[in-house]
Fold this sequence. Notes:
Structural class of chain B: alpha/beta
Distance between the termini of chain A: 31 Å
Number of helices of chain B: 4
Number of helices of chain A: 16
Strand order of the largest sheet of chain B: 2-1-3-5-4
Helix content of chain B: 25-40%
Largest sheet of chain A: 5 strands, mixed
Distance between the termini of chain B: 43 Å
Oligomer: heterodimer
Radius of gyration of chain B: 16 Å
Number of strands of chain B: 5
Radius of gyration of chain A: 22 Å
Amino acid sequence: MKQGSIVIDPVTRIEGHSKITLHLNEDGRVEEARFHVTQFRGFEKLCEGRPFYEMPSLMARICGICPVSHLIASAKACDSLLAVRIPPTADKLRRIFGLAQVTQSHALSLFHLSSPDLLLGMDADPAKSNIFGVAEKNPELALDGIRLRQFGQRIIERLGGKRIHPAWVVPGGVSEPLTEANRDAILFALPDALAIAERTLEWFKGTMEKFREEISTFGNFPTLFMGIVKKDNGLTFYGGKIRIVDASGHVVADDLDPTDYADYIGEKVEPWSYLKSSYYKPKGFPDGVYRVGPLARLNVADRCGTPRADQELAEFHELQRTAVLSSFHYHHARLIEILYCIERLEQLLNDPEILSKHVRAVARPNALEGVGAAEAPRGTLFHHYKIDEQGLIRWVNLIIATGQNNLAMNRSVLQVAKHFVYGNRLTPGMLNRVEAVIRCYDPCLSCSTHAFGEMPLRIQLLSPGGEVLDDVARA
Amino acid sequence: MNSRFMPRILIIVYGNPMRSDDGVAWRAAELLERKFAGSKIEGEVEILRCHQLAPELAEAVNRFEAAIFVDARSAGAGGEPGELRCEDILTPAGKSSFSHQLSPGAVLALSRQLFGASPRAYAVTLTGECFDHGDSLSPAVEAALPALVARIDSLVRQLRLSVGSLKGIPRRTRSRTKESPKCRNPS
């Protein structure tokens, strides 16, 4: 049989525009796979010359899905420029904001984008493998997705004044305190959200048995895992130290200061993608491949710090004696994190200081360079700024979760393609599995290329000579 | 008063305000808010801004009597830059497999599927010229912005009369055709 390659373009049900090429060997088996991001990055350059205090609201515009994560990382970088310690209540309010963001973003990923795979199966008719198919087969699940996402969005709206691009998080803290009415309204909505998280987690765990083959082949290989943990090595989304564990679950690096990220994170540019690939410098490229995001966070964290999430985390850690390696378990980790977020929201909202009016520290710039890091829904996010004496931005570097997962996503596509794809034609089941493994990572290509707007993705099957044997594009 | 019986109109503006003409709907929203401020219309209309149409909008539209979707249309979709179109959204055409971004028809279809009803709905679009990075509109679109705002305002006023006449009748039992204003484009 003729050697060739397959191109999947665009990859559907992800946030962004990319394509996949699968290169076949003489036997018609996949030999190489590449996940290309075809959108050009440009945000960092656009920021140069802008006043530093505009950065949080400007950075929030990188993405319509996770603006709050950029807002928080950016504000933290600006806090660093001001060299201030923000008031304790502002710190807690930012955490609430971030937890709401993770909840709504994870809900979008799991319910709207991946639930068709999980509910209808990987071989479902592509015409029905979408939110409408889910609504037809399990309307309660579709409604739960909508309600859980709304729960997170409404918190963002209550705190930030609007659900997209809220400018409430500012250098030095937040612009307005939380009102009693808003606190009570959020607390009132918590039990329903918690019930949705609980029943969805139960449903998900019940479906795992059907996906044994996918679990064993969806990014199931050794890598490092990186995430921010609290002082007690507990799960956090807001701040702490970087921890890295290896595939056996052993801690490779601990207590790393996020500010020093450039000492231990390297970035490589490949000619076939606008997405930079990150690696752990001490291990070099490509051995330093690491994963970030829900799976990594639960692999690096010893505990969650909330009762139900801790129970689920203990069960999760029992999935494997080593670190949990299969990227299919990103879904599972995402659900545990939703549970954690809701429980943690309740703890923070019941804090006696949460209605304090002292929510902002005011200062002029006291440093010319600042780094902010936080855990975005998809993984660790770094914002690094340099300013001049007038407070104008001179240099920006953003390290985004999807870029850090790029190497692992490429390996995952190759593993899935080697297992499921053969011949010079793509069947819907093959196509969907190749796409589904990418959806496990919930890549946000708007963020990772720092470009604006939306992008769809496409799969191409290429011969060793570069001849296109099959080309599938779905909108 | 039971809010189910109150005439309410939802205006959904979508697009990316940092991609030049793609942000025209957001600009229209600002002008509409100013126009409606202090008038009776202000309390009867809600304006929702978003980047793209997502599934949760199915729940949002279900709570209103009428919905107006406002967007920039790419030149490839037809029309000269600055050309204004207003269309009734009658059928759930265009169900999308990519559930990050639904068409207005798909949002309405999902609303019907999950909630058993959807409001009468209209799409008001303006053909854009430039979708590059930037927060200003191209001259043709900037020039057409007042007409876009006027068209939406006129539609809202027609809808107010229409939905107002239905006050007191449970929404799900109403006829969708008899009192609904029709969107017609100049020939």
